[in-house]
Amino acid sequence: MKATRPVLVVRRLSRSKWMELPRKVAVGSGVIGEIGEICTDLKLKGRALIVTGPNTLETAGREASSLLEESGFEPQLLIASASKLEEVDRAEDAAKEINAGFIIGIGGGRSIDIAKLASIRVDLPFLSIPTAASHDGICSAQASLTVNGETTSVPAQAPLAIVADTRIISQAPARLLSAGCGDIISNYTALLDWQLAHRLRNEEYSEYAAALSGMTARLIVELAPTIRPGLEESARTVVKALISSGVAMSIAGSSRPASGSEHKFAHAVNRIVPGRALHGELCGLGTIVMMYLHGGDWETIREALIEVGAPVTASGLGLDEETVIDALTSAHNIRPERYTILDSGLTRKAAATAAEATNII
Q1: Which of 204, 244, 287, 333 is in the most buried spot, having the most CB atoms within 10 Å?
Q2: Is there a domain that residue 235 lies in?
């Protein structure tokens, strides 16, 4: 019988937490051309395992592979087809087989998450090359993975370097950019939930992480009228915000600064109707309702999401009213150890009232 492999390896410290931050962050037009120089400057050794997807292989994977080959890193490509544990196993096996010195994830999320999980298993540095600004996983020490048919967030490691080429990212589908904005804007309610847990459950709270996360969300809301797909400046704005959000999580030592009740709602929807909408889209929709429940300015959140082209109704995401109500009333069962405003449990009547009041149904 084949031995069961762990999803991740947890690094334990006796007296303190590690704060993992990228050593190098390159953001700009054409910066993928600097990947060889960056790896050399980081004093990386050995072969490079590149984890990418079928589409992102053509978008950036082959180019990065050629550049690394020119720099003497003998890259090996691995094409990942799904965010599943089996793909992490494949990446781990490939890294061992070629005696890799480091692992690079190239993609919009799936390949990056697989690469970061595989890298922590084999204790190798991990580099992130996003091809879309769709969520803050491009920088964070968290990864999303399908385990037993359910999307699960697991601890991983932050990238040693991030190479975000705005020329490539700006050409990604418009929906991905608006989803990234939704993920950042959701920091608003994540912080309110964190503050609530701090007051009611004495949960550890980081003022520094919260300040960075809140500033990042405010920036996107304020700049929402200027964010447009196809523009490199918009890609630069959103990807820098996503990186800042990831750094806030690294400072906090958890995803608390960027994940609260709105993320529970997003995961609950995915349990009910898997793959119906993008993660950031669901988080944005959830943020509208959670801000209403917190008694905050949900109208401004809604307007900012409209400005960036993100859906603000259930029907806009192909969801029916029943799915939304079911998700709102069951979301408190997601990560029960993480206290949020949902954790007293919404009745179906209260959920319907909130959804109707915010016009999401």
Answers
A1: 287
A2: yes
> Is residue 14 domain-resident?
no
From 169, 185, 217, give the residue that closes a domain.
169
Which residues are within 8 A (CB) of 112 and not within 5 positions of it... i.e. 6 or more apart? 51, 105, 106, 128, 130, 137, 138
The number of domains in the chain is 2
Strand partners, 84: 146
- Separation of alpha carbons 21 and 141, rounded Å: 9
Domain encompassing residue 321: 174-357
What is the domain-level CATH number for residue 153?
A: 3.40.50.1970
**Are 204 and 335 within one domain?**
yes
Q: What is the pTM of this model?
A: 0.90
**Amino acid at site 323:** T
- Each of the 361 residues of the chain gets a pLDDT tens digit; together they read 444 454 444 443 333 556 778 999 999 999 999 999 999 999 999 999 999 999 999 999 999 999 999 999 999 999 998 777 889 999 999 999 999 999 999 998 889 999 999 999 999 999 999 999 998 888 888 787 766 666 677 778 889 999 999 999 999 999 999 999 999 999 999 999 999 999 999 999 999 999 999 999 999 999 999 999 999 999 999 999 999 999 999 899 889 999 999 999 999 999 999 989 999 999 999 999 999 999 999 999 999 999 999 999 999 999 999 999 999 999 999 999 999 999 988 999 999 999 999 999 9
